[in-house]
Amino acid sequence: MNAIELSHVNKAFGDFSIQDLSLTVPEGTICGLIGENGAGKSTTIRLLMHALRADSGNLSVLGIDVNAPEFLAVKQDVGVVLDEAYFPEVMDAVQVGKIMASTYTRWDAAQYAGFLDRFQLPRKKQFKDYSRGMTMKLAIAVALSHAPRLLVLDEATAGLDTIVRNEILELFRDFVSQPNHSILISSHILSDLEKLCDYIAFLHQGKLVVSEEKDRLLERYGLFSGTAEQFAALRAEAVAGVEHLAYGGVRALVRRAAAPAALSLEKPTIEDIILFLVKGEKAA
Predict the structure, then answer these.
(1) DSSP for 80-103?
(2) DSSP assignments along 44-93, one per residue
(3) Residue 210, SS3?
(4) 133-146 burial string, b = 16+ CB within 10 Å, else e?
(5) Which of 57, 130, 157, 281 is placed for a possible disulfide with 8 were both Cys, Cβ 3.0 to 4.6 Å?
């Protein structure tokens, strides 16, 4: 079963729109949703959680259509962390826990308390006095403390320092190692997603440009560095993106299958691939 399915989803907002978006997240995997600001990542997540209604297309979570009455019960199985956590400003962590205990049928108060200790979150400090990093840690603690099968995370590691981010990523790995657990996570920190994810989905201006297993994506491309003369010898279909350097050299993202076998290519990162596909001068 797929944990998440979107099929030909469209949603228009004035001069921006999600266009014909089809995406699946297989059960037991982690999918990284990436794209520049305004690409449609947060909109996609809100459509999935039925906080927004799609203009057309089909969306399902854990096998249930998000428009079906049964979806309300499915939300018990989904842990959500949005880009901005919305807890009442005058509440503290203990009060948040009490509200969640009445919201989720499988709320684990002991596990929640353990996360508060692990994340060094003060129990009596009001939410309005939290830093962004503390806010995100509290939201993650809530998301993990009601036995979810699916985590939907929108910039969940934003505002966290490197050490804490690595700890959170390890928590997510542990989560998905359990049977039937899955994650959809958006982030601007592409190095985190490269370490964490099985699949990469890349949105650009509301359109899905790439949706593929991470390892296959990394194997498909190579980075070329050389002279303009060397670059000119490449077939046009081999070049996915090109950057002409000030001193006359060329860097390019190259499709390995269409490049000469003897051509020396560096291994790209996910960030390299995305930057060339979006910002690089496109090859003719």
Answers:
(1) EE-SS----TT--HHHHHHHHHHH
(2) HHHHHTTSS--SEEEEEETTEETTSTTHHHHGGGEEEE-SS----TT--H
(3) strand
(4) bbbbbbbbbbbbbb
(5) 57
- Which long-range CB contacts under 8 A does 36-41 form with residues at least 24 apart? 36/204, 36/278, 38/205, 39/203, 39/204, 39/205, 39/206, 40/16, 40/203, 40/205, 40/206, 41/154, 41/186, 41/203
At 97-146, the pLDDT tens digits run 999 999 999 999 999 999 999 999 999 999 999 988 899 999 999 999 99
According to the model, what pLDDT value does residue 12 have? 96
Look-up of token digits 């070329």? 224
Render pLDDT for 173-207 as a digit per residue (tens, 0 to 9): 999 999 999 999 999 889 999 999 999 999 999 99
pTM check: above 0.90: yes
Q: Is the dihedral of CA 90, 144, 196, 52 positive or negative?
A: negative
Q: Say if CB 11 and CB 46 are below 8 A apart.
A: no
Nearest in space to 182 (alpha carbons), one of 206, 149, 220 = 149
Q: Which amino acid is at 161?
A: D
> What is d(CA 223, CA 261) in angstroms, rounded to the nearest whole number?
14
